[in-house]
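Proteins fold reproducibly. Consider a sample protein:
=====
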Amino acid sequence: MAHKLLNLLALTSLAIMACSFGAEPANALSNTHHVRDGLRGHDALAKRKRSVNGKRCKVRSAPADSSTASSTDSSSVDSSSTDYTPAPTTTSTWSDSSSSTWSSTSSSAPAATSSASSSSSGSGKGCLAWPNGDQSYLGDYKTDKTGLIYTWGETAPSNAASLGFTFAPQLWGYTNENDFASTVVAGYAKYALFLNEPNESGQSNIDPTTAAGLWKQYMEPLKALGYQVGSAATSSNPNGMTWTQDFFTACNGGCNPDFVAVHWYDITADGFMTYVEQWHTAFNLPIWVTEFAYQDFNGNDQGDLATIQSFMGEVTAWMDQQDYVQYYCWFGAMLDMQNVNPLNTLMNPDGSPSDLGEQFLYSG
């Protein structure tokens, strides 16, 4: 009898162990691919740039109440991570209705300025979004087409000016707030960029009202010092337009950017052109496309190199013909493309321009 009881206990223990090692429910992984328009891991790129130049910034916590963050499940984003990851978007699907488009006649909207006009020739409109720090091969990327460089931070590569680049420092968010304030002074630069994807919980993650205060503290005073200043660059998540509308409302006429910065990741040229036109129409200001690539975050075919080259050629030719598009910065001039299709890189492993890089630098 005792022997049978022991056998019964043994079988029971085995059953319990089997249950405890059961498969994880499938829905535990269901939202992994939604980690932001992703990296925009600009945070990582900005940190990498500052590290290369030996600078350190004290990280300040973002406000707890950020109602404008993406609907992405925040539990899937590690805010301490240094990975740059553009977020999944539905860039070409948001409506151009009166409910989603900021009226350029609103008293809270910034007025267009003549100082922000540019030639439609396309020469010099190409821009480098550069996370690589000081590199001798930066010279390989300076052509008549590429006039501007930015680094997601406040400092430029040491050889950028001598190569003929115009540098645009950026107040990325809280992470470089103090360094930006102490570095970007009279005579330091001609342009300045504002927040990186504040509508995304994995990026600068700053609500419109707080952003309005930061603008008035750091950006608006630069205009009196001769700077042309750009709006926050929201992700191409449809809530980016709403965030920007709410920002200008919170500013109550006190925020006057000279141009609007936008990001875009998707796979149709028509969608790209429609998106850029919508932002120009909504705010009646010149446009800087500070990040764009042929990248789909919704599970569709990413395309081969020939497809990406065709897309690049079509949209850059179109932007060269638009007076209101001042600069456009392809993502990316780097080797580590993070969660963006690596075929979008402008760079070979040795740092020289790739075939796609040569196209961007010389013909578009």
About this structure: The two ends are 86 Å apart (CA to CA). The CA atoms of residues 197 and 234 lie 4 Å apart. Confidence is low (pLDDT under 50) at residues 1-6, 8-42, 48-109, 111-122.
